[in-house]
Amino acid sequence: MALVPRKILLNPGPATTTDSVKAALVVPDICPREQEFVQVLQQVRADLVRIAGGSLDSHTCVLLAGSGTAAMDAVLNSVVPPDRGVAILNNGAYGQRFANIARCYQLPYYELRSPWGEWPDLTRLQQILREHPHISHLAMVHHETSTGLLNQLPEIAALAREQQVGLIVDAISSLGGVPLNVQEHHIDYLLSTSNKCLQGMAGLAWVICRRQALESCGQIPPRSFYLNLYQQYQHFEANGQMQFTPPVQVVYALAQAIQEFWQEGPEGRFQRYQRNWQTLMDGLQELGFRTLLPLERQSPLLTTVLEPADPHYSFNRLHDALYARGFTIYPGKLQDSATFRLANIGAITEDDIRAFLAALRAVLLELGVALPIRYPS
Fold first, then answer.
1. Of 110, 111, 108, 112, nearest to 84 (Cα)?
2. What is the C-alpha separation between 159 and 138, in angstroms, rounded?
3. 25-263 has which CATH code?
4. How confident is the prediction for the chain on average, in pLDDT?
5. What's the pLDDT tens digit per position in 116-173?
6. Where does CATH 3.40.640.10 sit in the chain?
7. Which CATH architecture has domain 265-367?
């Protein structure tokens, strides 16, 4: 019997969770300084390094209480030396967030802007890195959920290595959802969170760090008290604990979610998400919808859908009617195009996607929207 009514979340996170992950939140009260809880933390950290393709000899995991933005903030303020700068790939809302954080800390940064949904010009990136040898790091978003774009990680990682700059990768919405390996791509800092493709609860972020890179940050004057990555690392190394009070129940839920990830297997998780996405794409096409991105740039995790020009269409009415049926969709982020977004991550299946598509068709007909969807030529 389900603990609570099941909701199908098609927003880009938090994602739908299993009942067993929800149940893992209900544990006896415990002081997070107890050795029993420290052991849970140690196992979670080790598992996250393994999920990211790292080795415990060369990599470590620093946990942070907060959303994915906390990890973005912690990395940028902690790893860029005072006399150095950071290059930022900005082709979506979260690349822009990297730039906003750098600006807040008054870090020298060099921004390579590309239209949202388009890959960066790698020739121009190479030129920026060569023209500014004091750049120490390159920051990029792997999966831009503002559009559904999957950036060219292998090519960008190779360029960073060629130019001898540290690589920071926001994998907040891709770790566990698509193949990713910190060793293969020589990633120095990989960021993610508990509430997306690993199917845990919101409230915990982390950075998978190459130990040698992180230990070199000890000489950088702290720019933040709470979000200093090196100090958090030192605290873990000294006693296995988080420096500040952790979200205890969220950690237990993540431990359960990780156990379920291993049970399904990385390849099984990737394949399920791929099937969800293909089912969604087929259904949208049958209804006449168009999507923002061409297939070669599209991730199998989230799709940006172009809204119809039909006068009977209203996103808010569509959202509310679907929400009443147990499905959550998400508005678009683009300024110059009317869109909405559909993620297919979380503890959902092809049958859930088919049920959503049936509900979508029914609601569109209730609203009086003509099917198949038509767009201006």
1. 108
2. 10
3. 3.40.640.10
4. 96
5. 999 999 999 999 999 999 999 999 999 999 999 999 999 999 999 999 999 999 999 9
6. 25-263
7. Alpha-Beta Complex (3.90)
